[in-house]
Amino acid sequence: MTESAFQALYEATNKSLWSYIYKLVNDTALTDDIFQESFVKLLQAETSRFDESRTRAYLFTIATNAVRDHWRKKKRERNWFESEPGTELLARDTGHAYESLDVHEAFEQLSPQHRSLLWLAYVEEYGHREIAEMLEMKEKSIRVLLFRAKQKFIEILKTLGITSTVNNE
Amino acid sequence: MNNLECTFEREVTHAEKTDAWNERLQNHLQECSSCRNALLIAKAMDSVQAGALQKASAVPAYRVLWFKAQYMQRQERLSTLDLVKLLGVSFVGALALIGIIVWKIPTLSSLLTISESASGFVFHTIIPLSIPIAFIIAVVIALWMYSLEFFFARR
Ligand SMILES: [Zn+2]
Questions:
Q1: Which of A124, A128, A165, A169 best tests the B interface by mutation, with the highest count of B CBs <10 A?
Q2: How far is residue B85's CA from residue B148's CA, in Å, rounded to a whole number?
Q3: What is the CATH number of the domain that holds A77?
């Protein structure tokens, strides 16, 4: 990759990637480390045949793997699949317009894996097949996992009373 | 719609992000709870992303990472080259050492041979040949190492 191509890619992706990693690890220093590691690994990889979108997807793959490796090293692999054992959510009145803090609280309750899937699908707008390639899983598995992630998130949002566009039928 | 998601969900998500709604999509939204859930998630994710983006102000300049990667790649190449050089030098050294031992210590060489005729073969054939052979091998290895260095330096 040429320096100018890297500069363009970096300008276009750095904030998105940093935010993604941060929402998976919730630690600024660790986010900085994984963020830098991801770009350096991308530069060391053979990506000359990749187009812009594939390079971006590859960058997110590297970052996701780095986050998983972090848990593996700490022997906390299971935490990738589990929800945070944090504070219990108190049910709130339904129907109020959602506030940013509530949404963040809801998102934090999800497992890192669910957070990763929702981010890739809803923020980065990747399809099932693309996510499956990125996470080296079967498309069918991604479909099921993403469905569960959505159900879980909706359930938490409802518990927090954030239902403005949810039909409670 | 399959049993896990509605086929319009991605379109709904994209419309929410780009504010590009059309009548067909809005009508569909009225009658599809799956898409309304997708819309809620898309809005929530927008909010989550916006919050995270505010914290992402202190990313390093691209050059920092560019040079870091360059430096690491160079270190990696150098360590590969060092290994190749070490192997080459060890091989030539071992050849020379064996040559000197066999040449200078006849007792040892006789121990290495089984009979008089074999000993004669060592002294009259192997030793005179070993010096030019070792020299040729050393030249080949030197050329090989030079080409590797040239190859790595150009990458
Ligand atoms: Zn629908």
A1: A165
A2: 10
A3: 1.10.1740
Of B4, B33, B72, the CB nearest to A167: B33
Amino acid type, B125: T
Domain coverage including residue A124: 98-163
Task: Tell me the chain B residues in contact with residue A165 when contact means C-beta distances shorter than 8 Å.
Answer: 36-37, 39-40, 43
Nearest to B49 among A121, A123, A167 (CB): A123
Q: pLDDT tens across A43-97, in order?
A: 998 888 888 889 999 999 999 999 988 877 776 555 666 665 544 555 555 555 5
Q: How far is B3 from chain A (nearest CA, A)?
A: 10
CB A121 within 8 A of CB A146: yes
Say how many Å lie between the CA of residue B7 and the centre of ligand 1.
6
Q: Is B42 on the interface with A (CB under 8 A)?
A: yes
Phi-psi group of B68: left, alpha or beta (phi > 0 → left; psi -120 to 50 → alpha; rest → beta): alpha
Residues B98, A91: Cα–Cα separation, whole Å: 83
Surrounding residues of ion ligand 1, Cβ less than 5 A: B 6, 8, 32, 34-35
pTM: predicted TM-score of the whole model, two decimal places: 0.73
- Provide the residue-wise pLDDT of chain B in tens; the chain has 155 residues: 566 889 999 999 999 999 999 999 999 999 999 999 999 999 999 999 999 998 887 789 999 999 999 998 888 877 777 777 778 778 878 877 777 777 776 666 566 555 556 566 666 666 667 767 777 777 777 777 767 665 555 44
Chain B residues lying within 8 Å of A109, measured CB to CB: none
| 8 A C-beta contact, residue A20 and residue A57 | no
Split into its structural domains, chain B has a count of 2
Query: Of B74, B39, B108, which is closest to residue A98 (Cα–Cα)?
Result: B39
Count of structural domains within chain A: 2
Q: What number is the ipTM of this complex?
A: 0.85
